[in-house]
């Protein structure tokens, strides 16, 4: 899952949520310049040089769809 990595400094998780700019600064301080270890990076990890900060959005409903190849139809169909 997202955010389950561990930093070599002991900080847990690479995905965080903050409510104030001060909180963002504290979280960023624990990540920037540190090594993040995940399943994808392997045991050596990767040095964090950038972080992405975005504004949260309120989600009222969720909708899902899929595009499948239908052999009887002979092409893609939406589900």
Structure description:
By secondary structure, the protein is of the alpha+beta class. Helix content is 14%, strand content 19%. The protein has 1 helix and 5 strands. It has a 3-stranded antiparallel β-sheet, with no helix packed on it. A two-stranded antiparallel sheet has the order 4-5. It starts with 5 loop residues before the first strand and ends with a strand. The chain has one helix at 21-31; strands at residues 6-7, 35-37, 46-47, 67-70, 75-78. The model has no long low-confidence stretch (mean pLDDT 92). Strand 2 (35-37) and strand 3 form a beta hairpin.
List the SSEs and their pairings:
Elements: E1 6-7, H1 21-31, E2 35-37, E3 46-47, E4 67-70, E5 75-78
Q: Helix count?
A: 1
Helical fraction: 10-25%
Low-confidence segments, given as residue ranges, are none
Shape by Cα distribution: elongated
SS-based structural class?
A: alpha+beta
Average pLDDT confidence is 92
Adjacency order of strands in the biggest sheet: 1-2-3
Span of the ends, CA to CA? 26 Å
Q: What is the number of E strands? A: 5
Reported for the largest beta sheet, the result is:
3 strands, antiparallel
Quick gist of this model?
This protein is of the alpha+beta class. Helices cover 14% and strands 19% of the residues. The strands form two sheets. It has a three-stranded antiparallel beta sheet, with no helix packed on it.
List its salient traits.
single chain, 79 residues, alpha+beta, two-stranded antiparallel ribbon, 1 helix, elongated
């Amino acid at each position: 899952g997202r955010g389950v990595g561990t930093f070599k400094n002991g900080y847990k998780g690479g995905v965080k949520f903050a409510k104030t700019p001060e909180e963002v600064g504290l979280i960023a301080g624990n990540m920037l310049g540190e090594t993040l270890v995940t399943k994808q990076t392997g045991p050596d990890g990767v040095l964090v040089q950038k972080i992405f900060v975005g504004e949260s959005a309120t989600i009222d409903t969720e909708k899902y769809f899929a595009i499948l190849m239908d052999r009887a139809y002979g092409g893609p169909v939406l589900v």
